[in-house]
């Protein structure tokens, strides 16, 4: 990059001399206000020219498999959004299925891939064995099984089934941390 600036020395020298001469002329005509005006105008032109000379950033690569709208949020709104997902997922099953379950499934898939080399979607039985180490953990798989993702229990009489019980959610999160 320094070679580019060295090659532009004559142009930079001419620009500096031009600004100094214009500043002196502005000072001679309008006093200190003229000098300030010339300096501000020169700075604006320099910023505009440098902006035009800097190449545009390369386009972001297209992400396949959906978008992560959580990445676009600030950490403050992300925290409150996630907290409401937890509360709603505990309260009613549709909220668990649509918001909390995909997050937990994504965490499980990432843990299995990073630490055990197991693909949750191609090797669900191996994933189940890693998640459910003891008989006490067997019920956890029903809450996070990728095959159950779109299936939901029908509502009866307008009431919605309860979401994931708090103790089951705590056990599931603990197992995810241990993986």
Please write the string of helix (H) and strand (E) elements: HHHHHHHH
- What is the tally of helical segments? 8
**Overall number of domains:** 2
Coarse structural class = mainly alpha
Quote the distance from N terminus to C terminus: 47 Å
Overall number of strands: 0
Percent of residues in beta strands? under 5%
Task: State Rg.
Answer: 31 Å
Which consecutive residue ranges, at least 5 long each, have pLDDT under 50? 62-67
Mean pLDDT: 81
Helix content: 55-70%
Please summarize the sheet with the most strands.
Answer: none
Shape: elongated
Task: Characterize the structure shown.
It is elongated and about 90 Å long. About 3% of the residues have low confidence. With 179 residues, the protein is mainly alpha-helical. 66% of the residues lie in helices and 0% in strands. It contains 8 helices and no strands. It has 2 domains: 39 residues; 103 residues, no CATH class. The two termini are 47 Å apart. Helix 2 packs antiparallel against helix 3.
């Amino acid at each position: 990059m320094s070679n580019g600036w060295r090659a532009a020395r004559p142009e930079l020298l001419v620009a500096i001399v031009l600004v100094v001469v214009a500043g002196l002329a502005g000072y001679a005509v309008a006093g200190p206000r003229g000098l300030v005006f010339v300096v501000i105008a020169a700075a604006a032109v320099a910023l505009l020219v440098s902006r035009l000379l800097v190449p545009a950033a390369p386009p972001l690569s297209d992400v396949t498999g959906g978008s992560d709208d959580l990445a676009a949020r600030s950490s403050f709104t992300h925290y409150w959004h996630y907290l409401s997902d937890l509360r709603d997922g505990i309260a009613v099953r549709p909220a668990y299925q649509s918001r909390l379950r995909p997050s937990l499934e994504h965490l499980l898939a990432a843990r299995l891939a990073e630490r055990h080399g197991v693909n949750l979607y191609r090797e669900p039985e191996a994933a189940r064995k890693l998640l459910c180490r003891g008989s006490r953990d067997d019920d956890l798989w029903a809450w996070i099984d990728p095959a159950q993702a779109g299936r939901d229990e029908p509502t009866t009489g307008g009431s919605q089934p309860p979401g994931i019980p708090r103790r089951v959610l705590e056990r599931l999160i603990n197992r995810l941390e241990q993986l």
